[in-house]
Amino acid sequence: MSTASGTTTGASKPASTRAKPANKAEATADWVDGRLGIYSLAKANLRKIFPDHWSFMLGEICLYSFIIIILTGVYLTMFFKPSMAETVYHGSYLPLNGIRMSEAYASTVDISFEIRGGLLIRQIHHWAALVFVAAMFVHMMRVFFTGAFRKPREINWLFGFLLLCLGFFDGFFGYSLPDDLLSGTGIRFMEGAILAVPIVGTYIQMFLFGGEFPGTDIIPRFFTIHVLLIPGIMLGLLVAHLILVFYHKHTQWAGPGKTEKNVVGMPLMPVYMAKAGGFFFLVFGIIAAMSAIATINPVWAYGPYRPDQVSTDAQPDWYMGFAEGLIRFMPGWEISVWGGHTLNLGVFIPLMLFPLVLVAIAVYPFIESWVTGDKREHHILDRPRNAPVRTALGAAWISLYLVLLVGGGNDLFATHLHMSINTITYMVRVGFFVVPVITFFVTKRWCLGLQRRDKDKVLHGRESGIIKRLPHGEFVEVHTPLSQTDLHTLTAHEQPQPLELPAETDENGVARKAGVVTKTRTKLSEGFYGEGNQIAKPTSEEYLEITSGHGHH
Amino acid sequence: MSHDMSENLPEAHGASHGAEVVTHDDPFADPGLPAHEPRRTDIDERAAKRAERQVSLMFVLSMLATVGFIASYAAIDADKLVYIFPLGKVSALNFALGMTLGVALFCIGAGAVHWARTLMSDHELPADRHPIEASDEVRNDVIEQFKTGAAESGFGRRKMIRNTLIGSMALVPLSGVVLLRDLGPLPEKKLLHTGWDEATQAKPIQLVNMNTDQPMKPEDIIQGSLTFAKPHGLEESDEDFQQRIAKDALMLVRIAPEDIKDAQSRDMGFEGILAYSKICTHVGCPISLYEQQTHHALCPCHQSTFDLADGARVIFGPAGHPLPQLKITTDEQGFLVATGDFDEPVGPSYWERKR
Lengths: 553, 355
Prior knowledge:
The structure holds two protein chains of two kinds. Chain A has helices at 2-8, 24-36, 38-45, 58-77, 103-113, 118-145, 154-176, 181-195, 201-209, 218-248, 268-293, 299-302, 321-329, 345-372, 388-408, 410-417, 421-460, 484-491, 516-529, 540-548, and strands spanning 49-50, 86-88, 100-102, 262-267, 335-337, 341-343, 462-469, 475-480. Chain A is mostly helical. Chain A folds into three domains: 22-50, no CATH class; 61-252 and 266-303 and 330-381, Cytochrome Bc1 Complex, Chain C; 382-467 and 474-496 and 512-553, no CATH class. In chain A, the strands form four sheets. Chain A has a two-stranded antiparallel sheet. A two-stranded antiparallel sheet of chain A has the order 2-3. A two-stranded antiparallel ribbon of chain A has the order 5-6. In chain A, a hairpin with a 3-residue loop joins strand 5 (335-337) and strand 6 (341-343). Chain A starts with a helix and ends in a 5-residue tail after the last helix. By secondary structure, chain B is of the alpha+beta class. Among the domains of chain B are: 40-118; 195-338, Rieske Iron-sulfur Protein, CATH 2.102.10.10. Helix content of chain B is 32%, strand content 15%. Chain B has helices spanning 40-43, 45-75, 92-118, 136-153, 159-179, 241-248, 263-268; strands at 81-84, 88-91, 125-128, 205-209, 227-231, 250-254, 273-277, 289-291, 296-298, 305-307, 313-316, 325-326, 328-330, 336-338. Chain B has a seven-stranded antiparallel beta sheet. In chain B, helix 2 packs antiparallel against helix 3 (92-118). The longest helix of chain B is centred in the first third of the chain and has 31 residues, at 45-75. The two termini of chain B are 74 Å apart. The interface between A and B is large, with 145 and 117 residues. Strand 4 of chain A pairs antiparallel with strand 3 (125-128) of chain B, so a sheet runs across the interface.
């Protein structure tokens, strides 16, 4: 040891090439950089430019509510007992005194009444979960309707989609944990749906529940899935999602100085650190106030779960409402197959439609890029009107979702609107097929109308509201020409042209047959961008022709 | 409609952004980034000072709210209720904690955002994007490296190693799958029978009223009411109570025998008293709503509606088959009893169920 140290003392120390740090903070940063390489990381990101638009905050709401859910969730695990062992309640909530219940339910009631602030944290947890899923929905709509899912962001779209689906399920598992009358009914529903799976249904049911329904395993198992398995996967996806947002750099709206090759906005430090960091506190503050004001999931009022009891108005949390709609409007088809086996289509078809409705969102970017044949990167956002078919498809999906939501709440609609529940259910059955089609066409026409209006505005200027009387008595409204900024912004979008079928004969005159795939693709492309599916945007020639003729009117 | 475009009456507000260079050859050309427009706080030091005070005020409010949170936690009893308009009676502690926490957090956020909007630079800056795709040079280099690595491993050449590796990798997850076997028992015939199965002609089981916990005589069942029952011997304190009640729960109705349309159903009842499974055949919710005029029973979960006067036929909703019926009679003491199990499995249908 001493000889080894002797070789370095006295002799000049191996000099660092780095300049002497100016202060303690720099010295610390140098120390960390020497181990983690933070300077290279910060060089790319500290002054990273983010464009500004209100709709870009929606994703932030998702991120922040997720963090809030984790913080409050960890607190709740300190008190919640994920056990179905029976106990008799003797706490401070008198209506439940002496009632048999599971430890899970009893501990949830205790969190609400014995632990100071426990009710608040429980309500923040639940409210944040509702906000989380809602924000993911709206965020995805923003990404969808602006075409932000196009290359290079398709994979990030899938990450987001997975987060949405996992958010659904984690929410479902979470609100099932208190083992109250409402959530137990939800678990029973799930059990019935699993039993409807052909061949393996009963096996999955027995393995999931550890025996017959309800057994004593399902709450502890859901607990592990809810607090560990799904959040773990979600955390990984979330980090990947954010890394990709940084790596791709944010999309931006068309405008002066904005191109596909740049991103215009303000730097992460200090503006977005303050704005985004501050926004976390705004979201958290609002959710905390909501939890103070509005009661959510008062499990003490529902009572403990009993398989032979139920309350009316049994509704899942809103994001599962569409699945509830599917199961409610489906006719009770049950058929016999393979010598006396039962195929419960009335439950199995909704069970299959549930993922299909979701997968439709996931695959759309790939369908669109296949139809357009576009291989380029896109960083400038589309205004929804400038992609009429995409916008109409998105609107149709939302309308389908809303129809199913109405179907899922048919009992509430019946009691509140004094309508027959049968009528509502029949209407939902028809609406499931009809409403999305109507919505599609209405939205498309609407977009085309807005495109025409933009064209008019570019070519003829903005209506100024000033009426002028000409010498010969005619009244005209004076139109204000647009600034070049506006002219550019309104005409910056691309208008894809429909693909054409390859010539029927090749250059040697040999007949060449287009396959079904090619034909479908051409047809779809025509449907997306063909005549009547977009309004040709004004050209500068048209503009110059109209504006150059001084006083020709 | 058309008009002279030189008639540029009131100058469109904010239409020109100073630095715009109007190029005449292409009116739609990108005019480039607009010049920065200073905010009030950029040019007026007093406005900037005012903004600074506003931001600090928010942070001070947040501090006060946190003090309020701690004070509420210490001072307010957990079971105290207060009347707050328009919420009604709410937990005082929950309200105080939530509002103070909300204000403490919100004010930090509001202060930070106000700071960023009024005092931090709002110059918009452009940054270049670079294509996500690597250049051909990099691409070819990587592919070359990969090929070198693959060749050095001999993976493609030494087929025996490759195939046995694939084989072992394919097999090893099976251990994990096998381990799942003990998650639960096999279904076997578990779903086929209920607790009523133990009843026989010689040893019938009494029907016990769920509310009173007493056996019932036929006269206890009044026309127009829905009575819930369980088998004698099944107690709430039983370890497997939940599991058994999920299948054994009964609902009893009395319908005038001449109103019962289904003869077989009438025969399974006793003097017009019919005992049906309470568990819906759709996805297993307990049925709890009964319309005495029409003899319809409705499941409140998904609105499957059963006509109890017609063998519990499904008349509306998503259920696929009628509710199973339990044959009942009376014992020598005159109590309602069952002498056997349901004639078919109760609850949601499943693959192995015979139709």
